[in-house]
Design goal:
The chain has two domains: about 200 residues, Formate dehydrogenase/DMSO reductase fold (Up-down Bundle); about 150 residues. Helix 1 crosses helix 14 and helix 2 packs antiparallel against helix 7. It contains 14 helices and two strands; from the N terminus they run βααααααααααααααβ. The protein is mainly alpha-helical and about 425 residues long. The longest helix has about 40 residues. It has a two-stranded antiparallel sheet with strand order 1-2.
């Protein structure tokens, strides 16, 4: 499919599976809103949050959605900024997904604050020495740029302006993810967070999660439209995800080595690597989130020649012509590679969520030095022992509801507007 022959259409399936998916997402979203209602009226004492763990599981969901929104723009950036023809058919889908994920993440963030009715005050009174105030502009600006980006992609008269808006979107998404990482990196009172390395680590995290979500959505759309993803796209997404995971692993390694080297952070880092949340870090992030998907995707890269053969034989086959044994074998390898990519994306998303959990929750459960350089004789507050945290069903409901709302927005956009490409 060349760039000149790209045709777009909306996704309007009428299958039972599609209706069941919509019903399931709507139910989860409704339960999420009900969970927010319960927590707002009953108070946060019904959750697992305490005076020491003030950012709970909903924040993990919210931050994960926000960084994934930034990374989901990878497809559009590759197509418009770097002029990669392979991703041009998916640019509209990429931008729509990014905007949907950000809206879902922001909804969770707002509903988890305890007083969502005071949101107007938060967006009209700014303290520009706080990174939170800057993030208000970054989040709303990202949505506005995304809408304009979609408009330019859909209107032929603005095609000559696509690269300009794409460059602005690329710069803005880097600023947004940097700002999200700096929320935690600027918390100098937390030994496990007090580092500027969290900013580039969150950028790498966004590239991993965004690419994984983007690949899974392309796979789902392809199944609905019965229009399979090309093997070239599978191979390209696999390569991108490998490099992004290597970058994430590198920044995570440097972050933890830095904390081990700095004497005042050593005890906190030891707790992070061997304490109550160590299993989530080692098995959730390192094993399931890095090693497993990297191993799966490396197999795809090693089968490059066979995958290319599958694409070539499929494109040269006449309609109604039976597949030759070689073509069948190549197509089978391509399908296997696609399945590995899907499995790797799911593992990468789970591992990334574990990393965010360790960063947000783990840093709060560690003892806090309220009086640095002083010896505390007795205390019963934040500097005593390791805090416990057990998320409640309402926190799980709010977080899952945010994901469901983001997916519902994305599905509605695909149904109303011609954002998906089809091969003629």
């Amino acid at each position: 499919m060349t760039v000149a022959t790209i045709n777009y259409q909306s996704v309007k399936p009428r299958t039972a599976g599609y209706l069941i998916l919509l019903l399931a997402l709507a139910s989860i979203a409704a339960f999420g809103l009900y969970s927010a209602y319960i927590m707002e009226h009953a108070g946060h004492h019904i959750t697992g949050m305490t005076n020491r763990v003030v950012w709970g599981l909903p924040h993990v969901f919210a931050v994960s959605l926000i960084v994934a929104a930034s990374g989901a723009l990878n497809g559009a950036s590759l197509a418009s900024v770097f002029n990669n023809d392979l991703y041009k058919p998916y640019a509209r889908c990429s931008v729509a997904l990014a905007v949907s994920l950000l809206i879902g993440g922001l909804l969770v963030l707002v509903l988890d604050l305890g007083r969502p009715d005071r949101l107007v005050i938060a967006v009209t009174h700014f303290n520009f020495r706080s990174i939170f105030s800057w993030n208000v502009f970054l989040y709303t600006g990202f949505i506005a740029i995304g809408i304009v980006y979609l408009w330019f992609l859909c209107e032929r008269r603005y095609r000559h302006r696509i690269k300009q808006i794409a460059i602005i979107a690329l710069i803005w998404r880097i600023m947004l993810t940097t700002g999200t990482g700096c929320i935690f990196g600027f918390l100098v009172g937390r030994d496990s967070l007090d580092t500027a390395l969290l900013a580039p680590m969150f950028i790498a995290l966004s590239l991993v999660t965004g690419t994984a979500v983007f690949a899974l959505c392309l796979h789902a759309i392809a199944r609905v439209q019965r229009n399979p993803i090309t093997c070239d796209t599978i191979r390209s997404l696999s390569k991108l995800l490998i490099w992004f995971m290597l970058a994430l692993g590198y920044f995570a390694l440097v972050h933890h080595l830095t904390n081990l080297y700095v004497a005042e952070h050593a005890l906190t880092e030891q707790l992070a690597l061997t304490g109550p949340n160590a299993g989530i870090f080692w098995f959730g992030f390192v094993v399931a989130g890095l090693i497993l998907p990297t191993a799966l995707l490396l197999k795809n890269s090693l089968q490059k020649s066979t995958i290319v053969s599958a694409d070539n034989t499929e494109s040269n086959r006449e309609p109604g012509e039976a597949q030759s044994p070689n073509r069948e074998a190549a197509t089978s390898v391509c399908n296997t590679s696609k399945n590995r990519l899907v499995a790797a994306c799911v593992a990468a998303l789970a591992g990334s969520a574990c990393l965010v959990y360790v960063v947000i929750i783990g840093s709060q459960t560690a003892p806090q030095k309220l009086f640095p350089g002083k010896t505390v004789v007795a205390s019963s507050f934040g500097d005593k022992g390791v805090a416990s945290y057990q998320p409640s069903i309402w926190e799980w409901g709010l977080g899952a509801g945010g994901i469901a709302i983001a997916l519902l927005i994305f599905i509605v956009l695909l149904r109303l507007f011609p954002f998906t490409a089809v091969r003629r």
